[in-house]
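HUMAN: Please help interpret these tokens:
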Amino acid sequence: MPLCAEKEGVMHLDLLKMKDDLDERVGSIRDVEKMIDALVRCTSSFHESVGKAVQVLREYPILVSDARDHFHLLDPLVEYLESKVFLANDVDQLLFGLGYGRDEVELLNNAYCAWETALEQIFVERLCAGTSSLNDYRLNNRFQRLLKREISMLRHRTHRRALFIGSGPFPISAMWLHRYLGIAVDGLDLSMDAVERSRGLIAKLDLKGVINVIHGDSPHYDVSAYDVIIIALLAKPKKLILDNIHASAKPDCEVICRTSSGLRSVLYEPTHISPDILHKFTISDARVISGTADDTISSLLLNRIG
């Protein structure tokens, strides 16, 4: 066989394989679309719904590993989960966790984290492109209420500088914190991608100087300059972050640590308050979210011991 003919044969086989792979991906996408569509249309109980959502995420892990490109599939699944959490009853609360274990809840937490990160990435892109405004953000009202609750817990009235740990691609909490307290806010995030997106947005919104985003991939960050520190629910590991705050924060610094409670731990992983943490901090106040409210995050006001 002539060399050129042999090459053409190899290229033909490669093209056929590429076509088969593409057909398989398209078929897989259609399958998951059908599964999610069937799930959101059914009237299953809370626990059945959670179990079916876990099944979808297990069969299609790409929804979490590549949430940005598959957001159109992950978004309705998360919206459905949220609605089930918000409409759950006391029986659902009593039976919580009986039908699934830690691995299942961790999978749901990872999916919610991936969804929220992708939601922020997409929205920042639209803001920077001029196709959306700040008020268009889907979770804007939710975070506005959250920051109001958190500010209501603060005891001091002379704050000068605040730090938000885990600010993400869209530093909405830092923005509301600045608006309510009227002080400069630093955002800290370990993801360089999130930091770069935030910095571009801050420059576009002309917020330089009042909101500053810092890249920090180590929990050992000097926090001695801050009067208020808020730790995002997605910021991890909480123990190392709190250990560092205890070691370097000023004595009267007020620390708010976000967590989730009850059925909302299906969405967000709760902050585990261990005995070691309670040796270093007292819980002075709390705003715990439960019931049918469409809020998802609870908050704890911590004060350093010693």
Observations:
- The two ends are 83 Å apart (CA to CA).
- The chain has eleven helices and seven strands.
